[in-house]
Amino acid sequence: MRIFSVLAICLCIGFFSSCSSDDTSVTSLCPEIEESEQTALFQFYKDQLIIPAYEQALSDLGVLNTSLDDLLNEPTAENLSEARVAFRSAYLSWEYAEPYYFGPAEDQLIEDHVNYFPLNRDSLQFSIDEGFDSDLTERYDRGFPAMDYLFYFGSEDEILEYITNSDVRSYLLANMDNMVNRLSQVVEEWNGSFGSSFVSNIGKVDGASLSQIINTYNRHFETIKRNRIGLASGVLTLGFKNPSVVEGFYSGLSLDLAKAAVESSSNYFYGGSGTDSQRGIYNLLNDLNIQVGNESLANKMDATIVDFSQLLNDLNSSLDAAVINEEAAVSELYQSMSSYVVLAKTDMPTALCISITYVDNPSDSD
Amino acid sequence: MSRIQKLSSYLRSDVSIAPLVSFRILFYGLFLFGACRFLDSGWIYELYLDNEFYFKFYGLEWVPNIGSKAMTFIYLIMIVSSLFCMLGLFYRASSIVTFIAFFFYEFTDATNYLNHYYLVLLLLFLLIFSPANRAFSLDVRFWKIKSYSRIPRYMILLIQVQLAMVYFFAGLAKLNTDWMVNFMPMAVWLPAKGDLPLIGPILAKPITAAIFSYGGAFYDLSIAFFLFFKRTRFVAYLFVLAFHLMVGLLFNIGLFPYIMILSTTIFFSDELHAKILSKIGFNPNKGSTFIVNRVAPLYAALSLFLFVQLILPLRSLAYPGSVLWHEQGYRFSWRVMLIEKTGVATFKVYDKDDVFLGEVDNSKYLSPYKEKQMAIQPDFIMQYAKYLKEQLEEEYKIKNIKIKCDCFAALNGRASQRLVDPDIDLSKQIDSWSAKSWIVQLKDK
């Protein structure tokens, strides 16, 4: 019996000593979210944001497809300029579909095939010579970035001449087909079985819809911060700038694309444009009354979004020029986005009890 | 007889070698399985990439990064040597080789530290010195080496005590406010398993986290005692089975449940082991009795081992603040499943006059998994800062740069807060046993 009293004493001492040594209080712990609340949120995301964004992207891609056909059949300056207009709107529309990288989009590796940038020109040249392989990934040779180059790399005459070359022509067509096929697949899945399972996939498990939303939202935001702004600005290379790595470098669309990306990221957060949207992560955080320090987390995030959106809108030239001419402004923009990552990647998931799983332990843990 | 003499004669009193033989077969058998599983999973090629930065343990920085090919080779060696150990063939050499190979594996990359690997390493170490091959082994059969039927009790007791310390310290580590009052991190982890059939809805209930927290702490603190005493042993073992299988089902902890389930069979009596082993050909009466000749060096070695094992888990008490937060003295201390922690660490580079040069793109130097681990553990943050200084100075042909870190981490449901002092040049800090003054202590309202 003596051993048990010793044990009991150990227990008590251990307990009280640890209580006194680190007195803690936790701001909010895993608030329950009503089932109906969750399904309504997912339904809203699906019907109001995700499917419309994908459908718009697919329809604009269809327009681009037609203009590309016209251009290749009749390579005139007029057709080139029409194709460029169609390219611009299709690329911008894509920005609004890009955040939702889970489920069918992930199955189709849609990002790889539609918008992996910066373009690798050697890789593109290789694929033009050897033929387009729709199964390859991580090639940086395809999608919008490839068209961005092929539509804008030189003077109109140079371009018109180059794209009628039979290898280039078949490359452009195959690339287009690949984008259309994959995107159609995604739209079909969202309108079908995946869409309905998304709405009913409640809970906090890895892979549940809320976890998908929080994880992909963060992932997308980091691609804006790092790939769209950071890498070009030189902030990640000790001041050595790399203007040519911006998205849409050849077409000069970089700033418009970045604005669209930030706007689509914000839409993801608010569930539409701004705080008065009916449902969204913003409202969810507010309804659950989640506080960080003495401030509402939702308000803190909102204020930061407003801040960096404004900083981005204040830039005057395309991003590749801005990183040189408006260095201080770009740096301020980047810092503001950095401070947002802390809120979005640590505070928000912690408060909602969602694990960040897009970076996960490959083996066992303990 | 004095108490010391009583203890000494108890430690040297002889018991059947059967529990040690069982342990040899079960433990090395599971080790063999684990090594095959690891090799088969392809983790080596995910985790041990060549030419990458590896985080190290303090004092073990000399363990080289050997790359995935050499690591595969080490695993092949471990598979052969542990098979030999299980069969009791060239036992002494094989057990040493297994230990050394696993030592290299375990200490190559500190971000892959797992408490149960450390336990395995300690048991591999103890087994080197045991006569586990002196009965029912190929060494005895082939080379006719001297076999023992009886061995001194301390040989069994030492393994039991080692296992008991794992449980007890794991229990002690749970006695903190996060675990006992806020039920963290169970309150986060259990609802995340809410989609399991049957038990899912139960796990999602808040009360379940409380039951798990108290049940887990009580289990860890007491199970070794209940296993030790004959009257409670059988029921206690049923709890061992139930507890570890359930935890294994709920969490991604690999082979840990099976290590404990198989290892704790050593608490059963030597008669029971002898009885079961004799069904597969073990002869409990074959061989002589192992006699300890030189007692003093033996006791000195045992005391030293136990002293180190007692001191290591308690060393965190020497550091101010919450060990869950600063993680000084966290490893090698049987602290398991205590923290849900996420962090974001942004490294900033300054020249010698404190002019800001830029930020570091962590993904360029670290795998996503290493980055995730680094951002929550201060000593890794410092190691990485030192590496960055070296790397960037070479890459950009500059000198005397400073590396500072904006790091925010969120622990067990708290809002994120600074983990390290953002104004300190981390690349200049020196790792040691002393408390790291540049860690910003956890603040609770």
Q: What is the assembly state of the chains in this entry?
A: heterodimer
Fraction of residues in H or I helices of chain A:
55-70%
Sheet of most strands of chain B: 4 strands, antiparallel
Major sheet description of chain A: 2 strands, antiparallel
Distance between the termini of chain A: 33 Å
- Spatial strand order of the main sheet of chain B: 5-4-6-7
Q: What would you report as the Rg of chain A, rounded to the nearest angstrom?
A: 24 Å
Query: What does the overall shape of chain A look like?
Result: globular
Mean pLDDT of chain A: 90
CATH class of the largest domain in chain A equals: Mainly Alpha
CATH superfamily of the largest domain in chain A: M75 peptidase, HXXE motif
User: Helices and strands of chain B, in N-to-C order?
Assistant: HEHHHHHHEHHHHHHHHEHHEEHHHEE
The main sheet of chain A orders its strands as 1-2
State Rg of chain B. Answer: 24 Å
Separation of the first and last Cα atoms of chain B: 57 Å
Short overview:
The complex is a heterodimer of chains A (366) and B (445). With 366 residues, chain A is mainly alpha-helical.
